Amino acid sequence: MKYILHCIVTIGFCLFSHNTLASFNLPGKGVITYPTGIQKQFKFGFAWDEQSKQFTIADKSYNMSQLPDSYSVAITLSKDDSQVWVQEFNNGFIESFEWHIGEHTVTLKKQKFNEPVKGDYVINLNERSYFFTRSNASIVINFDKQGIQNIAINGVTKNMGTKK
Assuming Cys at both sites, which of 2, 50, 112, 141 could form a disulfide with 21, CB separation 3.0 to 4.6 Å? Predict the structure, then answer.
């Protein structure tokens, strides 16, 4: 009887400790489009291993004492606003991208509007449109122990960017 009780308690502790170790893996994948129209696939995701205290960004892992609160992906417009640079996705300027990370989709594409917008760019986060207000914007991914808590885009506006 003592042995059975010991086994039940041990299994209970194993189950409890496993549930408290929150880890996630969000592979992330996308497509960039060059100004020439050529498309290239890319992988850019995140993972957290609570047990080993390792945070993975794309294909690189880092030892950390805890899960970081957030990670920012910078988007920089070229001087003539005709192209963008996203270091995490490509080494040079691109024209557009589509990125799927977890349950979220972020796209950046050129589009003509009745009112001119900076660079003729629209950024969509989960089908909500945003427009550049300056030459730099950032996609901020906020994490919790289950993965992505939310995503926000800084340096943008919802009003087509036409207000001064």
Answer: 50
Burial of 117 (0-12, 13-18, 19+ CB in 10 A): buried
pLDDT in tens, 46-87: 999 999 999 999 999 999 999 999 999 999 999 999 999 999
Say if CB 143 and CB 46 are below 8 A apart: yes
**What is the helix (H) or strand (E) element at residue 138, kind and residue range?**
strand 136-144
Q: Is 110 exposed, middle or buried (0-12, 13-18, 19+ CB in 10 A)?
A: middle
Confirm if 160 and 115 have CB atoms less than 8 A apart. yes
Question: What pTM value is reported for the model?
Answer: 0.83
Residue spans of the domains in the chain: they are 23-157
Q: For residue 37, which amino acid is it?
A: G
Q: Which residue's entry shows tokens 């557009």?
A: 96
- Are 84 and 108 spatial neighbours (Cβ–Cβ below 8 Å)? yes
Tally of CA atoms within 13 A in the half-sphere of 123 that contains its CB: 27
